[in-house]
Amino acid sequence: MRIIRSRTELAEQVAQWRKAGETIGTVPTMGSLHNGHLTLVNALDGKATRRIVTIFVNPIQFNNAADFQLYPRGLEADAALLEATGKVDVLYAPDETEMYPQGFSTRIMVSGLDSMLCGADRPGHFDGVATVVTKLLLQTGADVAAFGEKDYQQLCLIRRLVRDLDLPVSITPVPTVREADGLALSSRNRRLTPQQREQAVHLPEALKTCLANMQSGKTVADCLKICRESLKNHGFNVHYLELRTGDTLQETHTPTSGARLFVAASLGDIRLIDNMPVV
C-alpha cells in the first residue's frame, strides 16, 4: 500500500492505472478508522480492481472550531489498519493546503437536502461535505465509491450531487455497522467517557422502541414524544428526532416501509447520530 500526500502524485498513479485498464474504488473518510470503515473497503469487493482510501479531516464542514480541533486523528494507526486488509492500494492523505490552495473560493450546495436534519442543526456543514467529496471523487478518478448508511443524509446528498453533476461514479451504500450492544460505530465514540459510553447505548435502544411503538398502532407524534423524553431522561440533549421518507427525506407521519427514523443527540459536547428504517 502506498501513502500519497499530493494531488500530483495521485494523478500520476491514477493515470497509470487507467492506461492499464484498471477500475478504481474509493472510500472517502476523515480517519480515526474502525471496523465500519473496513466494511466500506470490503464493500468494493468485485466492483473495482484498485482501491483508494482517503483520509482528510475537512475543516469546511465543521461549524464548530473546537469540534474540528478535537476530532480524533491517528494517521499511523489508520495506515496500519488499512495495510492489514491487504486490499487497499493507496492511502491518500492530503493536508489542508493541498486540498484548498490559496485563493480557493468554491462551494458546492445541494439545495433542499442540505437544510434539514443535520443541515438545519449545523449550518454550512453539507456545503463542506459536498465540496470535499466532489474533489475527492475527481482526484481519485473513482468509478465506484462506498458510503455508510449511518450518515444517511450524507449518502442521499452525495447520490444527488453525483446525479446532478453527471459525475461518472457509482455510489455503493453500506448498512450501518454496530457494536455488540447496538451503538453505531463512529470515530466520535472514542471521545466518550466510560459513563457516557454506558449512556450512549440507549440511543439505538430508544430508536428500536420508538419504531416498535409506531408499528403497534400508536401515532407517530406520540411515539416521537415518548422517545424524546426517554432520551432526555438518559442524559441526552436531543437536537432532532424525526420520521422521514427514505428517498427524498421529506417529513412523514406515516410509518410505511422505506421510511426512516433519524436522531441527533449529544452527551456533553459529543454529538451522536443514528437512523433506522421502518420494516
UniProtKB/TrEMBL annotation:
Molecular function GO terms recorded: ATP binding; pantoate-beta-alanine ligase activity
Entry binding sites for ATP: 30-37, 148-151, 177, 185-188
Database matches in CDD domains: PanC
Catalytic activity, as annotated: (R)-pantoate + beta-alanine + ATP = (R)-pantothenate + AMP + diphosphate + H(+)
Compartment(s): Cytoplasm
UniProtKB keywords: ATP-binding, Cytoplasm, Ligase, Nucleotide-binding, Pantothenate biosynthesis
Residues forming the catalytic site: 37 (proton donor)
Residues that bind beta-alanine: 61
Keyword Lipid biosynthesis part of the UniProt annotation: no
Binding site for (R)-pantoate: 61, 154
EC number: 6.3.2.1
Any single GO CC term annotated in Swiss-Prot or TrEMBL for this entry: cytosol
Any one biological process term the GO annotation gives: pantothenate biosynthetic process
UniProt-listed InterPro entries: Pantoate_ligase, Pantoate_ligase_C, Rossmann-like_a/b/a_fold
Coiled coil: none
PANTHER family tied to this protein: CYTIDYLATE KINASE/PANTOATE-BETA-ALANINE LIGASE, PANTOATE--BETA-ALANINE LIGASE
Misc note: The reaction proceeds by a bi uni uni bi ping pong mechanism.
NCBIfam families attached to this UniProt entry: panC (TIGR00018)
Family: Belongs to the pantothenate synthetase family.
Physiological role: Catalyzes the condensation of pantoate with beta-alanine in an ATP-dependent reaction via a pantoyl-adenylate intermediate.
Protein name: Pantothenate synthetase
